[in-house]
Amino acid sequence: MQHGPAVRRRKLGAELRALRTSAGLTSGEAARLVGWHQSKVSRIETGTSGVKPADVRLLLDAYAVMDTQLRELLMMLAGSDDDGGRHHWWHAYRGVLPPTYRDFISLESQAGAMRTLETTVVPGLLQTPEYARAVTKAAVEGLPEDRLDTLVEVRLARQDVLRADPPLELSAVLDEAVLRREVGGPGVMARQLERLVEAARLPQVRLQVLPFAAGAHIGVTGPFVIFSFSSTSDLDVVVLDHLTSSLYLERKEDLQAYTEAFNALQIHALSPEDSLDFIAGTAAGA
């Protein structure tokens, strides 16, 4: 397990190494093409050193990589601002957001799909402003009002990925506790449940409820997120949130384990149709 930036360097390096190999070049030949020493190419490919977006662009050009989506994804991993900040709006909040949160948002903004198990609160991408405010205020005690406003603003801005073209495909399994926990009071919770009903009807959103009646399940160990990328599965990553940090799992065996766990949760959960009825019924009684 590693923190986000280290994982991203390793993934970026591995992808660049694969592209170089596909281009039929040795690391020495690649270095000569871009005017570097061979050791720099090696350090980038092993993830032992950071790499500037401009350097990634040089390598992609040298390897004749024309796939626009793949280029954008790799530039994102290097921290690119080439698109004028369109995918990097969170940089404006650098002084407010911790690096791990900014890293999470950057992955979320470029992922093609997101699978998440939530056991305590509504997923951030589906929260109403009032619910987001109540959750944030409870999570960080003593937060000044202006800072609280900013964090809620960020939470709502993240939701744009569901309206992008193409939108992020969100699959979420919600423990029944998420629906029953009264956050912000009855009125806030009622509006939040209504929002979930609306979201469940979106074609890019798949919501399933894991009812208490399902008993113990593999998700009792805690929530998690799996990010998948359209261009290559080699960049997929699992994110585990902790109180003060996030951990990123990148090994194939970890990805397989969490993917199988999520698939099992979907089997034990109510169907999307029954889940919609369940959420609507809960809302009616809220």
Give the helix/strand class.
alpha/beta
Biggest sheet overview: 6 strands, mixed
Task: Report the CATH architecture of the largest domain.
Answer: 2-Layer Sandwich
Query: Helix segment count?
Result: 12
**DSSP strand count:** 6
Q: Any idea what the radius of gyration is?
A: 21 Å
* Distance, first to last CA: 40 Å
Q: Could you report the average pLDDT, rounded to the nearest whole number?
A: 87
Organism: Streptomyces azureus
Keywords: DNA-binding
Protein name: DNA-binding protein
GO molecular function, one term: DNA binding
Account of the 3D structure:
The chain has 286 residues and is an alpha/beta fold. The chain is built from 12 helices and 6 strands. The protein has helices at 4-22, 27-34, 38-46, 53-62, 68-77, 99-110, 129-139, 145-158, 176-180, 186-200, 252-268, 272-285; strands at residues 113-118, 169-175, 205-210, 224-228, 237-241, 246-249. It has a 6-stranded mixed beta sheet with strand order 3-2-1-4-5-6, with helices on both faces. Strand 4 (224-228) and strand 5 (237-241) form a beta hairpin. Helix 1 (4-22) crosses helix 3, helix 4 (53-62) runs antiparallel to helix 5 (68-77) and helix 7 packs across helix 8. The chain is elongated, with a radius of gyration of 21 Å. The relative contact order is 0.13. Residues 16-73 form the HTH cro/C1-type domain. Keywords: DNA-binding. It comes from Streptomyces azureus. This is DNA-binding protein.
